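Quiz preparation item.
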């Protein structure tokens, strides 16, 4: 059985998106080479399907589909090659099409679609950012793990990773801190 993992960057005050622009501009201050390499080589090592909500998908597509460039750092180049080749799913009721290679669109029936995916063979299914989608998947009791990078910043408002209806018991599996002050937390849903 495959795991469904929510891979999130989060502020100290619990927000996964600022609601401004792409929503995670606050990550750049504490994003470092050691975090990038660890993310690629360890946090994401078992992912073979990337899942996005509409807004995150559009931002990722607009940036990563044109990468890597000559100026890309090694971890950016590796991620660009991976994300352009990996199977991708975008969940949206309003998006007309999903044009990025290896992408399919899910317009509804999240419980059925993700239960079927999880019952199949393969690596972990990873939801990237997309906190509103994560809220829906948590309510449906489909998320198996949270892999969270907490950044040393407080933004005061935005979209929280866990909404007020969330009630989860979590088991800590792993922690790690990075040069620029970010901390990685890996939790299994108990």
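Solution:
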């Amino acid at each position: 059985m495959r795991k469904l993992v929510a891979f999130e960057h989060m502020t100290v005050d619990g927000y996964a998106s600022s609601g401004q622009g792409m929503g995670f501009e606050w990550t750049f201050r504490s994003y470092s080479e050691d975090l990038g390499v660890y993310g690629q080589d360890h946090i994401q090592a078992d992912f073979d399907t990337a899942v996005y909500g509409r807004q995150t998908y559009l931002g990722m597509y607009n940036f990563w589909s044109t990468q890597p460039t000559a100026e890309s750092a090694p971890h950016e180049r590796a991620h660009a090659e991976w994300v352009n080749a990996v199977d991708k799913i975008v969940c949206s009721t309003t998006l007309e099409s999903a044009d990025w290679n290896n992408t399919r669109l899910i317009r509804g029936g999240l419980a059925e679609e993700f239960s079927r995916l999880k019952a199949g063979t393969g690596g972990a299914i990873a939801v990237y950012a997309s906190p509103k989608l994560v809220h829906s998947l948590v309510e449906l009791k489909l998320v198996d793990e949270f892999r969270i990078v907490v950044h040393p910043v407080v933004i005061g408002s935005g979209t929280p990773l866990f909404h007020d209806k969330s009630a989860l018991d979590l088991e800590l599996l792993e922690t790690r801190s990075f040069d620029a002050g970010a901390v990685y937390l890996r939790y299994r849903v108990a």
